[in-house]
Amino acid sequence: MSLDADTEALRKIPLFRGVDDQKLRLLAFMSERSRFEAGETLMKEGDYGDVAYIILSGEAQVLVNSPSGEQLVATVGKNDFVGEIALLIDVPRTATVRASTTLVALAIQKEHFFKLLTNFPDMAVEVMRALAHRLERTTREFGRLRAAVSDG
């Protein structure tokens, strides 16, 4: 696809709602399209990451390991951003993300991601907001899972 098409796709992502067109164009230029078939893993829990993905189409499952096996904690799809935690801090991936349908995403490398956040503080604020929402959702889901285990 073209740079214009990727820029237009980024414009639709809530994370980048307040970002001007020049910055979106730069992000699109620094990104690479990736395609995953259903069942393919985008990232694996425990691995160190150097790339995050902005999902353009398709869906994926976010899974975490537990004593009883992998547990589904979220489903992500179009306009979601996954993998950014491992880009922000040097920790292993907190979850496995596996395509549940054919999935197309823009891959952003760690080096480029940091340059963007450093040069454009408004993007950094939006990333923090997105992470806060994800933390709240994950905490709520963890509580629900924990209650189900305690009750059953």
Describe what you observe in this structure.
The longest helix is centred in the C-terminal third of the chain and has 31 residues, at 121-151. The chain has one domain (3-109, 118-151): Jelly Rolls (Sandwich). It is globular. The model has no long low-confidence stretch (mean pLDDT 88). The protein has helices at 3-11, 21-30, 84-88, 110-119, 121-151, and strands at 32-36, 41-43, 51-57, 59-66, 69-77, 81-82, 96-99, 103-109. The strands form 2 sheets. Strands 1-8-3-6 form a 4-stranded antiparallel sheet. It is an alpha+beta fold.
Top keywords for this entry?
152 residues, alpha+beta, Jelly Rolls, four-stranded antiparallel beta sheet, 8 strands
On the 0 to 100 scale, the average pLDDT is 88
Class based on secondary structure composition and strand pairing: alpha+beta
Number of strands: 8
| Apparent shape | globular
> According to CATH, what is the topology?
Jelly Rolls
Task: Write the CATH architecture name.
Answer: Sandwich
Name the CATH superfamily classification: Jelly Rolls
Cα-to-Cα separation, first versus last residue = 49 Å
Main sheet summary: 4 strands, antiparallel
Helix content: 40-55%
- Following the backbone from N to C, one meets helices and strands in this order, namely HHEEEEEEHEEHH
